[in-house]
Amino acid sequence: MMPLREALTPRRDRAGTLGFDVVSSFSLADPSAKAAFLSLATATATVTLTPTHKLPAGPAKALKQASEVAVGETIWLASPAAGTLAPVLKITKVVADGLHSPLTKHGGWPVVDGVATSYNSAAVVARNKYLLPLVEAVCPSLGRLVVAAVNPKPMHYIDGEVVEPISSLEVAAAVAVTAAATLGVRKITARK
């Protein structure tokens, strides 16, 4: 297994260009979670996603939840050639183990089982293209704290850390401790 900072995932950018992107430490992975999925099958690829996971569909590359894709609609494949549209021939409901949501650091669409996917809405992916590298460089722990404050469920990160939801009071206390520590470091540095 390679370190997260070096992990790459095939991805397709919004223009449809196939390339590689760094997997963010904010990617989610809970291999033991049992969940309901939809398998979308084309003639050459089958991707299995949660019903709410997004993927670009149709010539306009509009992001849709897997549950909104119908038989006959087209989805984007990474192979045999970059930018290939293929019709969905069959949709199957399955229950399986493992929930994964790879976030790309620079805004690409992760390619899963040969199919372009998206971890969120186009607006969130566009924002995260700038925000993720900054937060990971400056203070990834604070970023996870913010996510814990606004998300009502535990977050299982790709590095194995599980962050439980926290209350507003806990957030205020953590921010106060962080601010105090930062100010203390500045005072010590200023004395030298």
From TrEMBL:
Domain Hedgehog protein Hint: 13-119
Coiled coil: none
A Gene Ontology BP annotation from the UniProt entry: protein autoprocessing
Protein name: Hedgehog protein Hint domain-containing protein
Organism classification: Eukaryota, Haptista, Haptophyta, Prymnesiophyceae, Isochrysidales
InterPro entries attached to this UniProt entry: Hedgehog_Hint (IPR001767), Hint_dom_sf (IPR036844)
